[in-house]
User: Which sequence fits this backbone?
């Protein structure tokens, strides 16, 4: 009765994004939910889920680690982000299913609860300093003690000129720090839009103590580039949301190239892989700061992970008084993680502790083709989004 009967990807428009959910059902009718994290490329992941379903149907749903290994090693080519995004959704669904079968929350399957609440950080994403300051004060008044801002992009969505951006952003950050004081943790996400030299210049423009973390200033493909950057600045880095495996995370952990691990449980390989990275980080005194830009299933999985590991800082949330993107629609997800102020309350319900209105998901707006912005420099050349 524990054998897998079906694995189905469900793709729907939720809020301003598509969400790719995966439902795993066993022969006795029990089911679990997972979510994939490869935004804007969900159809590729859905096709991979269907490939995996071809050989996973009929297998014992309780053999989660073995299933992970077979998905990863059942082709000549190594995983990659499309494969591990599909594996993540399946892995999370299998944990949800097993928790329901045993009548325990998922974190009990991970070693038990180490905290009662999971703290989060909120984001200020306005285009101007006055609005960002107002949002920061609103978040602080609502209980947030960790705030992330975005850089000044100027012609957002079309043109990005890094020198203009870093000069204005540095001035704005000094203003924000003066306004909020030193007790609030302040970070910024540069969305890997800079080079090593540009990042070093940016850090040099900031008085010591202005920023508590700099997230993803450059792309992650070349650890040696982060090593060079580390020699040029003492700014704490928050890196990892692009990682698709423990192998990608390895040099960043072993060489001290990140001070906060931004792994995404819906990209890195689900609970099975995230726990391995978390243990590795613990050895090197690196706290997790999980990426969480998706829907209620991703949020629930991230909360269970955050509850079960000792080395944890903040979970990204997109559910704040200043930012509601429609990802957590209560009609589509009638039961989801509960927030009290800035923290998620660790649930006691079996599995992930969420419910999906499957009929509503199936009849929701059809997924739209989503193409991330194709940024260019003023000279017409292409740069990173």
Assistant:
């Amino acid at each position: 009765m524990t054998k897998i009967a079906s694995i189905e990807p469900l793709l729907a428009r939720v809020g301003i994004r598509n969400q790719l959910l995966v439902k795993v059902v066993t022969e006795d009718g029990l089911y679990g939910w997972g979510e994939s994290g490869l935004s804007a490329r969900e159809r590729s992941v859905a096709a991979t889920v269907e490939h995996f379903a071809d050989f996973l149907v009929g297998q014992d749903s309780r053999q989660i680690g073995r299933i992970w290994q077979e998905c990863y090693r059942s082709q000549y080519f190594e995983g990659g982000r499309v494969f591990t995004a599909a594996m993540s959704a399946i892995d999370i669904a299998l944990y949800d299913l097993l928790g329901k079968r045993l009548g325990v929350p998922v974190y009990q399957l991970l070693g038990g609860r180490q905290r009662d609440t999971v703290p989060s950080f909120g984001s200020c994403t306005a285009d101007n300093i006055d609005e960002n300051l107002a949002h920061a004060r609103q978040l602080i008044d609502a209980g947030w003690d960790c705030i992330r801002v975005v850089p000044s992009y100027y012609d957002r969505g079309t043109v990005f000129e890094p020198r203009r951006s870093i000069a204005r952003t540095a001035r704005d950050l000094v203003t924000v720090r003066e306004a909020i004081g030193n007790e609030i943790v302040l970070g910024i996400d540069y969305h890997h839009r800079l080079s090593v030299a540009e990042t070093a210049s940016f850090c040099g423009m900031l008085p010591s103590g202005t920023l508590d973390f700099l997230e993803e200033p450059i792309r992650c493909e070349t650890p040696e580039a982060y090593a060079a950057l580390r020699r040029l600045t003492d700014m704490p880095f928050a890196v990892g949301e692009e990682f698709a495996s423990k192998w990608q995370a390895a040099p960043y952990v072993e060489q001290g190239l990140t001070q906060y691990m931004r792994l995404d449980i819906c990209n890195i390989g689900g609970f099975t892989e995230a726990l391995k990275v978390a243990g590795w980080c613990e050895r090197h005194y690196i706290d997790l700061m999980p990426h969480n830009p998706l829907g209620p299933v991703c949020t629930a999985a991230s909360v269970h992970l955050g509850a079960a590991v000792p080395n944890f800082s903040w979970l990204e949330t997109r559910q704040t008084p200043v930012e509601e993107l429609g990802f957590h629609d209560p009609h589509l997800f009638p039961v989801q993680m509960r927030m009290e102020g800035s923290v998620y309350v660790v649930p006691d319900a079996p599995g992930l502790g969420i419910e999906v209105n499957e009929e509503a998901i199936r009849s929701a707006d059809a997924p739209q083709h989503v193409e991330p912005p194709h940024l260019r420099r003023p000279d017409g050349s292409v740069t990173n989004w």
User: Anything to note?
Assistant: The longest helix spans residues 80-102. The radius of gyration is 20 Å.
